[in-house]
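Render this sequence as a predicted structure.
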Amino acid sequence: MNERDSETLAGMLTELGYTPTTDKKTASVAIINTCSVRENADKRFFGTLGQLKKIKEDRPDFVVCICGCMMQQQHIIDTVKSKYPWVDIIFGTHNIHEFPRLLQNVIQERTKQVAILEDGGEIVEGLPVRREHPHKAFVNIIYGCNNFCTYCIVPYTRGRERSRKPQDIINEVKTLVADGVKEVTLLGQNVNSYLEEGTDFADLIGLLNGVDGLERIRFMTSHPKDLSDKLIEAYGKYPKLCRSIHLPVQSGSDRILAKMNRRYTADQYLALVDKLFSVALDICITTDVIVGFPGETEQDFQATLDLCHRVRFDSAFTFLYSTRKGTPAENYPDQIPEDVKHARFNRLVEVINRYSAEKNQAYVGRIVTVLVDGISKTDAAMVSGRTEGYKLVDFPGDSHLIGEIVKVEITQGKTFSLRGKQSQ
């Protein structure tokens, strides 16, 4: 979601005549788009902000802007105002559309600009975008979250759920396809909650499946409690829907899931997995897992390991629990010691990586379709891209393949990626 917001900000700057630069020392404008999900992101933000201070001292005309989820929290804004008074523009997740006006005000009036809305209000359509890839795009379909998991700050920083009109989404996708896009990723804090004008998420996928020229549909992220049979059946019904799903489980312990306010049990989650495999046997399932949630016992953690053994996820984002100011879990008793968290984390990662490697090794000899994204980061003589199941594949090739969907025979399965050769 933040990547998509950054593309919008880049699009606005492009329309204003700016061009990107990687050199902070010569830049006219710097924007830090912040995230509040993890504590480490907070620390990196303040570190980066400190680095920009010297540039600002040397060049007072250098405009420093900060935005995103952290700016929706009053204690962060108070810290910035008191310790970093040289920051020029502060705006929140609901004020992105105001950025050009705020920037012009700073340049013309030389006055600090602060714009923070508590709630999103109406969705602003038609904002410009500067995409990272010409052949694929992010498409927002729903903003905000109503779930209030006890560890999560997102409902407080992104606001309540607001769905876009289906025709606005379809029109955007058609425009993207006309511009060369082959794959779209539908975005929302919980895409399963999408509902507008009688169209639910599965209906929306069906409508987009009918867009001529579009070849792949992805989405993120799904909440298990809202994963309907209708959506599961879409995997067998709509050929453009990629056979992959990111389905965060967070814990395998019913007791911890209840404390997290996730509103499903481990058995209910496993039943969803069974349904997914029954409709699409080759579907790739990835997940999120939090280690060390307050009150987590060894038995609770073992339940998480057991669930991971049962599902055999293709990969997982694993997190050490960190307190988020303003969330209920911040004040829960029985916070887990850091050494215990790290020991459990290492055990979990070992299990996840073992199954990732096994799953990838099973691809050897198979022919898959890969949408090529660019030159490989590990070997300049290779290109890399993603399978339908979102597996990363490197294979010999050059830049003329970027943006093409290519058949590749897999020759090697590694823990985090595949290698192959172009298939005739």
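Summary. The first strand starts at residue 29 and ends at 34. The mean pLDDT is 95.
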